[in-house]
Amino acid sequence: MSEERHVKLFRNGRNQAVRIPREFELPGEDAVMRREGGRLVIEPAVPQSLLALLATLQPLDEDFPPFVDPLPDAVEL
Asked: Is 17 inside any structural domain?
């Protein structure tokens, strides 16, 4: 069974909020919250930067066919 701890709910403007204890801190600055039945699940958001996405990709194990890249025609100015 996972750790559990009772926490206090409070109001922040018109929103209900909960302070996350240090032992349950999430990495980063964003999180995703969803409802599963009577539970609220909060998990770290997946980084959305292009560099983060590229870092998750596996190398391709195929060779690309050669392509012809001719020089452009000369242009007189």
From this structure: yes
